[in-house]
Amino acid sequence: MIQTIPWGAVVISGCMIVYVIFLGFASYSPSFENKNFYGEYPAIAGNLPSIYRGMRSDDSNLNSSISTVSYDPWDLCDLPKYDVWDEEIIPYVNPNKDPLKDCDRTFKPFTELKNSSWRVVSLNKNLECKTRCHRRKSERQNEISKWNFTQGPVDCEFLEAVCSENKEDVYGYLHSQVIPKPPIEKPKIDTAGLMQFDVFVILLDSLSYSQGKRSLPRTLSYFTNHMDGVIFPYMNKIGENSRPNGIPIWFGKSLEKIDRSLFDEEVIPPDWSHKYFCKTFKDNETNIFSEFHDYGYRTLLAEDWAEGTMNWPNCVGFDKPPIDHFMRPFQNAYERKGQGAPITQKHLKGGKLCRQTHNTLLDYMGQFINAYPDQKKFGWVWAIDLGHNSENGFTHADKDFHNFLIEHRKKLDNSFVFLLGDHGLRFGGVRNTFVGALDVNNPFTAISIPKVLRNTTNILEYVAENAKNIQSHYDTRATILDIMKYQSAKSFTETEARQFPEEKGYSYIRKQPSTPRNCRNMPIPLEYCICQFKKSKVPRNTKTAKEIGKALAFAVNTQIEDGNFTGNCIKMEWEKTLSLEMYDHQFKGATLYTVTAQMKEPSKAEFKSNVKIVDGKIKVLGMVERSNRYGKTADCINENKLIFFEGWRSLTWVAYVLYFGAQWAIGAYNFVKTDEVAKNYFREEMILRYNVCVDNLSSLAMVAFDPSSGDIRWWNLMTVVNMSFIMAIQYAIMIHCGYSMFTKMEEKLQNFSTMHKNHHKQLFKTLMLQGLYAATICLIAIQFVYRYWAVFDENKLEFFEGWRSLIWVAYVLYFGAQWAIGAYNFVKTDEVAKNYFREEMILRYNVCVDSLPSLALVAFDPSSGDVRWWNLMTIANMYFIMTIQFVIMIHSGYSMFTKMEEKLQNFSTMHKNHHKQLFKTLMLQKYCSVCGNSCAFAKRIAWNTQETRRQGRCDLDIEVMEVHH
Fold first, then answer.
1. Please, which of 43, 100, 147, 470 could form a disulfide with 130 given CB 3.0 to 4.6 Å?
2. How confident is the model at residue 937 (pLDDT cuts 50, 70, 90)?
3. CATH 3.10.450 holds for 50-78+533-639
4. One of this protein's Pfam families, by short name (predicted)?
5. Does residue 769 have a pLDDT over 70?
6. How far apart (Å, rounded) are the C-alpha atoms in residues 383 and 620?
7. Strand partners, 598
């Protein structure tokens, strides 16, 4: 009986259902996609909707302790007084933490870059060393030269060196140097009458005042004693993280609003919106670097992070930075995959070489100082890695900063030197202490003035006096501008307070206005204010505590709704109020609180803010600040089900396909075997029409009713149920996902740019066509083989029977796997491809390419021009697969076409027609699959081109990315 089973038909049917199931996957998988929000979380502030405006505090014990005073407490600023070694903070401090304790202090670099010439200094004769230059091409991409094996002169500031031994890379190193530029003969500003000094800024990210005192004792001892530096204990940050604190110093522009509703005043909006800051190059905006250049200074900027203040997370920064010496190519080579050699990108990790990223910054600054002995200089170093995530990140580096100040003491003694922090440590348990909670808003600030001015002017006196008052980063900016523009014109003898045009702060190297300095009069958001007000802790389990906590959660959710992120983020639900403090003094009848509340799982986010209750109504003031570590930030996003397509979980879908393929095949084998009833039913018809005896054919047949008795043949009908069940599941998936994407796409994309909308719509169209071509071609190739052998060599049809039919299952799976594995390995989007598309994707689609699932083929390295053979292998792989299929079809088809009349001459007319119809069917299938897909692709190109022409540009470069998403 097994010989009569048409195994070829079973196998081909199984392959078709596998294909349909794969198409179902293709439709379903995008519904799993994590819906990322590309950009920053917006500031949370402002009024609450009416639902919470009616909230009332019914806890009389809270209001009874409030005293009403005749003066306005906000006109005062009680500055914090505390011990930086307070007992409460000791458990968080570890002065012995040193990531370099096990490094090899005897190690010497194998190569040297000196006086614009490189050489090998290692005595190992088996080393083969090479170098290449890195220059800036864009913020995220370098222009990289070809490898140079000849020691000698180089004309770049950043040189990558790699040495190999026995053809294995054993050494990678990034060298830096400053190649001096000629003096600026005619600065934009006439500097003839100015008394100019060099200005150097060393900013340590997340360094607070108290942390600086604890972690940098040697540096600060030398800075205050030898350099007569003055430390500012009461510096107040003006933004949450690095950017809104750094940009006000560089550009004088605010990035966060200031909520003045507590004082019944208008909210002060930010100078720049997030969109404008991130999506517009800042070359044309006046900044501190360009202004120093206008005054004849040579400038430097060095950050030890490839994204940096101007670019994170997906901002364009500068197109052509107004900076003479910009260290970004060094960071790109070190951090970005594909820009530096793998071994080079390891040389600062793990502490093996006793060298960290802050050492590279200090080296570059030192080279800058030495490169211009006779030109004025402005240099800014921003060290991010050391303390951004740790209370104990700075201590081991104290000696490095101390040594830098000593090594360059002669030059620094005649310069203005700033030691800054942008803010304090923002995360961790230390924030639960009084000192830690204050630190986050109290960045380190210290200044040393030139020795010549210490005894000939009163500047030190004014600086020391101003250090007793609250200051902000706007005052630091005003001080730097004062050094550059105003005091320099008066030989640093001007003493009276002065408001500089369009500036928000006051210089602290002169007198400051006598008006009270507090968070009401200064541009400092209330939520960051370090002024101390008398507060009383109140119970956390009262009705008021609960209502305030819920109002805080509601404020977060309101901002999520206002930003149209409800489809991206879960709704925050209040779980408990962690702390609640009430201000002892009322303000215009309002009771003020500081609250910290925890949200329910999965986020477990802790938010902190100030609120006021007036006339029983609760209002959240200013920014709502996240006070615990972000950790798994994506927990506030819908669960990312794409993990089921990664790693071992992807086997779920292999099992899914095999299960339904097996169910289809086993069902066909069991339910529609050709029994005697079916044979009798078809016997006469087959003889009459085709002159073929059904007993000699391998076949499957479904006869729903017994021709003799009229009884229903339920066993046969089960195959209909089986097939309908399988197909219903697949089409339900495809219809549900397709319809959902079609109907909800406009809603999901309504906040996207036009180009971003087009991008997603094109992905949807591509999704509907993907996989169709290759799967169809492979299946048709198998049918050509079957028909060819059926006509010319029936003996080989045994390969379509029994266990041998598994050959064709393997055939389809093999080439499918080869295609998929080839795409996965050959066109994975590496750093070179990401850098190639990143800026374009941000500008055109407002999308960060790092967050997109994508495949990209970049045939040539944009930096070096080298052929990327690994990428090109995907073309060879596709051509190989398709060539095999088309050779089979062309050979079989041509043979059948030319020899069919000869082979069929002894067949009946009906039998001839039967075979000719089969041949035409095969050719039509082939033609439709080729032309149909080609036309669809052509339509996509035409549609996309038409759309982009309307906007005056063509997106064919991006099309490469879209097709593979």
1. 147
2. very low
3. yes
4. 7TM_GPCR_Str
5. no
6. 35
7. 576, 606
